[in-house]
Amino acid sequence: MTTERLSINQITVKNWSFEEAVRGLARHDIRWIGAWLGPVQEYGVARAAALLREHRMQVSSVCRAGFFTGRNPDGGGLDQAANERAVEVTAALGCDVLYLVAGGVGDDRDIEASRRAVVRGVAELVPHAAAAGVRLAVEPLHPMMCAERSVVVTLEQALDVVEEFDPAHVGLAVDTYNVWWDPAIDAALDRARGRIIGYQVCDWLVPQPHPLFGRGIPGEGAIDIPSITKAVDATGYVGPIEVEIFNEAVWASDPDSVLTTITDRFERSTLPGF
User: Fold this and answer.
1) Residue spans per domain, the chain
2) Rounded distance, CA 159 to CA 228, Å?
């Protein structure tokens, strides 16, 4: 099995605590985890770092900081101190990639002003992140999330933000669910050479069961994930591939069975050439 690059984002096994997720992934011989701030902080950052070392696990990314504009529908955000704490947690876990969610449209409904606010917000966070050795990953979300979660909804828009900064400090995150539909995806990924620092995969289910929780296990939906992986790899990205699934049916399933399904399908559903 070619699963050396496989990472499981913690939200995929949501019903497991951080400790259960680390132990469960290690049991399946998966050595990468995408961590979420809430569960890590609940468990204790120092304890979490020790647990990762104990199980020889690495953190592919930490989710999430940002919400530089609009209102965070999940609470929090719009808080420089909270974003700086997210940087510190990321570094404490031995990880150097912190995902950013841009934030939705501001109260003035000026979408372009909101996008400019995102650039300012990233700029304010860069010095703290750079000092900690953490890179900020700008992730475009699907356009249906523009009002509430992210005014950055295409790879081109994300690159417009990323290219304002030193690539040592700010990079691009690609998530198949968010970008697969984009007719400019090939040109955007070509432009992204040397800029991608995070890659997440899941599938687009047909029909969509929920606008936020409609993600499927790779191979179950409409996305040609291997082709996107090939294009991402061609940019020079050779890092972990995170499976990130928001889906209530997946969450209701036995996490061990979910991991078995993902690992069994990983080669043919995600990697090019299999």
Assistant:
1) 6-270
2) 17
Largest CA distance in the chain: 52
Residue 259, C-beta contacts closer than 8 angstroms, at least 6 positions apart: 8, 13, 24, 25, 28, 30
Which pair of tokens denotes residue 263? 């690992």
63-83 pLDDT tens trace:
999 999 988 777 666 689 999
Q: Quickly name the fold that domain 6-270 has.
A: TIM Barrel (3.20.20)
- In this prediction, residue 174 carries a pLDDT of 98
Confirm if 198 and 60 have CB atoms less than 8 A apart. yes
pLDDT digits (tens, 9 = 90+) for 145-154: 999 999 999 9
- Tokens of residue 7, six digits: 């990472």
> Do the beta carbons of residue 215 and residue 222 sit within 8 Å?
no
Would you state the structure tokens that stand for residue 198, as one six-digit string? Answer: 């995070």
pTM for the predicted model, two decimal places: 0.97
Strands 215-216 and 203-204: antiparallel
For residue 75, give the 3-state DSSP assignment. Answer: coil
pLDDT grade, residue 92 (50/70/90)? very high
Residue type, position 79, single letter: D
